[in-house]
Amino acid sequence: MKTKKGEETYNNILEAAEQLFAEKSVSKVTINDIVQRTGIAKGTFYLYFESKETLIWEFMDKKFGYADQWMKEIVLKGYNDDELHEIIDFIVSFVKKHIRILRIMHNVRFHGFLGIRRLEDRYMKKWITPFSLWLERGRLEGTLSINDSQFMANYLIVTLHEILDRVIMDDFPVSIEEVRDELKVLIVKLLK
After folding, report:
1. Domain check: are 37 and 64 in the same one?
2. What CA–CA distance (Å, rounded) separates 104 from 107?
3. What is the CATH number of the domain that holds 41?
4. Most buried pick, 13, 50, 67, 176, via CB within 10 A?
């Protein structure tokens, strides 16, 4: 178990890394940059992280861990319009809260450093299973008008990701609030 000082050092390293990733390409950030920004010795860095790659994965897990838990709990959600809107509200609020980090992560060089396939395996694929289970329950109950829950889960995750990705990177001339409203309409139409 980490001490209070140890937890503080761990968090300071992650914060320094986040600042540096926002300033320059993740591939150009070195461990020396991180320890210099944090004000610790290089050996101290290695007490907490095996490598820069390990730091990056822990950084993302720490920032997005509660989204993973929420996705697991989606199987408990219902299917009326308000509940479908609640799902979109959560996703959009999550994006708004983490826009800076999401912009860092959506940088092509960030994907290139970790590998797009590894990122998809670690995040996107694990979100599809609970989404698929939730959709299958709605299909079996006759509440949702879908034929293939697995396909629809993949379709929804990829669609939401692509649309929100464009908003995150300022590629759409609309606000995230406008996208939220359009996504609510889209999701209800797709599922009912």
Report:
1. no
2. 6
3. 1.10.10.60
4. 13
Tell me which residue of 41, 52, 43, 42 sits closest to 14, measured CA to CA. 52
pLDDT of residue 63: 80
Cβ(191)–Cβ(146) below 8 Å: yes
pLDDT < 50 stretches in the chain: 1
Contact predicate 26/108, CB 8 Å:
no
C-beta separation of 100 from 21 below 8 A: no
Asked whether the beta carbons of 116 and 133 are under 8 A apart, the reply is: no
What whole-number percentage of the chain has pLDDT above 90? Answer: 54
Same domain, yes or no: 80 and 160: yes
Which residue, chain included where needed, has tokens 């959560």?
Answer: 90
- For the chain, how many structural domains are there in total? 2
Task: Indicate the pTM of the whole model.
Answer: 0.79
Domain of residue 67 covers: 52-191
